């Protein structure tokens, strides 16, 4: 009997709780905010790669070329804090057809250039000093966090405007935000191998200006659910 009374009591409480739950009227919208800015710095990832049949000789050649590259970077008055070695590797490569082992040495340096007027000269000099692989060229903004914040605020404003436009037709008002989801991505233009093009133009006697950095478009995308009043 006690078990039956307990069971009926729990059922009653559950039914009462379910009746108290109310459906919250919501409107779900997406918002987008964009900020366009000119880059004020460029990040370059450049590698020296050498190959040969003798590991010691391959490493020595690679070290000598990278030494020349680092000296050139310093000569360009790039602060020490703005360039660093990112990779050093010496790997054997076995040729099963010739049954011989060769070696491949790679050193990669990452450089942040805050004076964009040095870009063309630096890229051309890197190639001349021994860089034979440009892995990445990324034009960036040193104030990225600030512009990301601005884009997010614009995205939220856009979402609220859209919500208000929809519900105004129904004679309702937009209340507080119920849920917010951030779906933002960042795009940075990456023109590759500009130094190589510059050298080709020099040989033809043409202008060596290759830098067309454009703008960075920082976009924020949000999904927002607003409560309807």
Descriptive keywords:
alpha+beta; 38% helix; Alpha-Beta Plaits; Translation Initiation Factor IF3; SIMPL/DUF541; elongated; four-stranded antiparallel sheet; 2 domains; 229 residues; signal
CATH superfamily of the largest domain: Protein of unknown function (DUF541), domain 2
Mean pLDDT score, rounded?
Answer: 84
Give the helix level as a range of percent.
25-40%
Structural class: alpha+beta
Largest sheet: 4 strands, antiparallel
Overall tally of domains: 2
Rg, rounded, reads: 30 Å
What would the CATH topology of the largest domain be? Alpha-Beta Plaits
Q: What is the terminal-to-terminal distance?
A: 48 Å
CATH class annotation of the largest domain:
Alpha Beta
- Give the number of DSSP strands: 8
Q: Strand fraction band?
A: 35-45%
**What is the multimeric organization of the chains shown?**
single chain
Low-confidence stretches: 4-8, 190-207
The coarse overall form would be elongated
- SSE pattern, N- to C-terminal: HEEHEEHEHEEHE
CATH architecture heading of the largest domain: 2-Layer Sandwich
Tally of individual helices:
5
């Amino acid at each position: 009997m006690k078990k039956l009374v307990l069971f009926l009591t729990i059922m009653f409480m559950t039914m009462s709780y379910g009746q108290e739950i109310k459906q919250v009227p919501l409107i779900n919208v997406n918002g987008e905010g964009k900020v366009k800015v000119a880059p004020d710095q460029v990040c370059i990832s450049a590698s020296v790669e050498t190959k040969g049949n003798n590991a010691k000789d391959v490493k020595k050649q690679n070290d000598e070329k990278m030494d020349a590259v680092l000296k050139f970077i310093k000569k360009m008055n790039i602060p020490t804090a703005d360039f660093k070695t990112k990779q050093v590797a010496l790997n054997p490569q076995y040729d099963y057809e010739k049954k011989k082992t060769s070696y491949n040495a790679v050193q990669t340096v990452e450089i942040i250039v805050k004076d964009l007027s040095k870009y063309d000269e630096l890229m051309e000099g890197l190639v001349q000093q021994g860089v034979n692989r440009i892995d990445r060229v990324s034009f960036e903004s040193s104030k990225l966090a600030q512009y990301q914040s601005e884009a997010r605020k614009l995205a939220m404003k856009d979402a609220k405007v859209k919500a208000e436009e929809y519900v105004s037709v129904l004679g309702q008002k937009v209340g507080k935000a119920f849920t917010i989801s951030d779906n933002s991505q960042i795009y940075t233009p990456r023109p590759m191998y500009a130094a190589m093009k510059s050298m080709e133009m020099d040989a033809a006697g043409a202008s060596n200006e290759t830098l067309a950095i454009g703008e960075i478009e920082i976009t924020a995308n949000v999904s927002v659910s607003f409560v309807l009043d």
